[in-house]
Amino acid sequence: MMSGIKWRAALAVAACLVALFFLTPTLVSDLPVFWNDHLPKDKIHLGLDLQGGMHLVLEVDAAKAVDSTLLRTAGDLKETLMAKRVRFRQADAAKAGLVTYELPDGASRTAFEKVLKDNYPDIEVAASEIREGREIVSLKINDKRAGEIRKMAVEQSLETIRNRVDQFGISEPEIIPQGDDRIIIQLPGVKDTQRAKNLIGRTALLEFKLVDEEHSVDEALRGSVPDGSMVLYESRLDRESGRRIDTPLLLKSATLLTGESLENAKVQISDRFGEPHVSIKFNAQGAREFERITGANVKRRLAIVLDGVVHSAPVIQERIAGGNAQITGSFTMDEARDLAIVLRAGALPAPVKILEERTVGPSLGQDSIDKGTWACIIASILILLFMIVYYRLTGMIADVALVMNLMLLLGVMAAFKATLTLPGIAGIVLTIGMAVDANVLINERIREEMRLGKTLRAAVEAGYAKAFLTILDSNITTLVAALFLFGFGTGPVKGFAVTLTIGIIVSMFTAVFVTRIIFDYFIWNRKVQKISI
Amino acid sequence: MEIIKAETHFNFVKLMKPAVLLSMAVILIGIISLIWHGGPNYGIDFAGGSLIQVKFQSAPDADKIRGSLKPVGFEGSIIQQFGLNEVIIRTPQSAATDPHGLTSRVDDALGAAFGKGAYEVRRIEVVGPKVGKDLTRKALLAIVFSWIGILIYVGVRFEFRYALGGIIALVHDVLVTITFMSLFNKEFDLNIVAALLTIIGYSINDTIVIFDRIRENSRKDTKTPLLDIINTSVNQTLGRTILTSLTVFMVLLVLFFFGGAVIHDFTFALLVGTVAGVYSTIFIASPIVLLFEKIKPARPRGKSR
Predict the structure, then answer these.
(1) In chain B, which residue's Cα lies nearest the Cα of A370?
(2) Which of A25, A96, B76, B112 sits most deeply, having the most CB atoms within 10 A of its CB?
(3) What ipTM was estimated for this complex?
(4) What are the CA-CA distances from residue A518 to residues A1, A8, A12, A514, A526 (Å)?
(5) Which residues of chain A have a CB within 8 Å of the CB of B258?
(6) pTM of this prediction?
């Protein structure tokens, strides 16, 4: 029995030391160098609600990615059909996943379907009907391919957003997919949330389009937009009034070059006004293309369009070789820097929508930490005193277990890099109240046994034996509830489930195993016959 | 020290019938209250919408805030006092997709009315309707599955009728908590769901302790009718039941008074739930076991299983 106590005591002490070891970085602010180099240096990880930061849930509008693939394919199909001399008319542009064609007769229909079958395996006929002798055929991307496109759109968005956030310079961001088309983003400590949201949420599709100078804009604004052209607005900031002025421009719909051909983008300050602009560099292929476009369109205007807004539409003075260009506009320094980041990281394959946003300011986080810490301290003192008043020496034994419980709980959290949230702190406080339950059960049982006239040794033996199964059963059922909480919860609530779960498991060790060691020490080593309980 | 003297002989079983009636009355009041309030008072987590917590340097005037929000289209906001010098502005809109951002619009409005630096935006939560629906579904599933999980565990470890008694007690606790939440017009959000699941975990813990004693006693003594066994068992564990509830209640009061406004409602729900949990353990869970005994006796005249 002697050695049994020694081994068990050694195990308990070892558990405490390991916990303390993992807690050292949290407790000691400046650690010696060798510790930082070789030993765990992570403090207990605080949730966004405690350290401040932003939590976003984005939804990738993956259907748009399917639509734009369909649109591209439709453009291609148009050329193939013309080359094969199939008579057709495209009834509308691709939208809601469909593109509709009108064919004059059955022969064209047959030819049309043959072209489809031979060249476009990804496209299938969604619906067709015969209206006034003409065949109306709607095409769509087949389900398998559409699924692939959607999946890829989400993966690419995730990657692009990760790139953007990395370049924005936020430490320890967390960007993870959720479900089919959602992305969860956690940005601890981010200050300018609006700017971060703009950076993450913007599609950043850069397009170069020629200005249509043969037709008048006014005419188009009145409703007669020429075929193959579109109206977009140029937005610039008027320095004097500080207002944004939108000017309509008539552009050729065809996109000559996109941001995909970029190699780099960076902020530069123009010499004349000290205004920032973004200078872009095309990759080899893009540079060649750019040279060809500028060469073929000297003296015409080339519009630089970002997410459907014209940034500038300068006149091409001469053929531009070398693949360098500038995007000017009335940017602030931050705007220019963010634009450079999104251009470097690339465009999102589909637009994203912010479904959920939760931001906690750093001062509220600190308040919560302070209040939580106080609640923990007050609750601990109350329970420690209560146990001593109620059970005397036995209460003190339970108190040792309780203090150890808290230490191990925090140690486990540090070791497993679990996140502590405000509800998590509430979970710790609750654990303080619930962990003594095991000791109450045991002590009440020992009292009962002693009332039956058993010796202390026998009473302790029986008390522990009988209380153990009860403690096990009752704690496991509580664990079941805590586990469902963990599975269901996000963020703060999950933090609550974590502390509650660890608290329950650890309390089984401290309240049953550790207290028993102390009891046994008194009974076997000190030969105590009576104990205040 | 002893709060409960060693040998108590309260006749709990006799009190069970009025207790069940009391519980049913409370739950009925809850249902009436829910109908009266037009359903639970869902927070933005479930209903969707936006919440902005703003701290002012001195006590703010709610009407002035409301007035300042009018130009940006948030005149329908609910403005709540939240701790000292703080308010929560709630709108049903979830303009998460708005490029200019709800935040900056509210910020501009408050800045114009109170001057920049006179206040601090401390928390923003925007939940779109889609997410709200998702969270509602997940919350319900979590609660129901935790019931099923516990039903299975208790069913395996004890007997099915014990499991059923335990679960009905849990449903009772959740309903009573919802009743009080509705009576005090508290908001239902994710934290409250966490509180409900904790109550479920805590209450079953309590119930198991008594069931365990009933099982132990009925094995030791196969002659006494179950009714008396239950009475003895509840009495024997009474000291522990009261002590543990007391410690849990103590820490919850600490959280309630010192934990800060953010978890105030959460603690409120837990306080109600723990009381309901202890009560249901004694007066609801055991009678149901007894009821099943009457319907389908497991120990006809002193034969244990």
Answers:
(1) B259
(2) A25
(3) 0.87
(4) 13, 10, 11, 7, 11
(5) 371, 374-375, 378
(6) 0.82
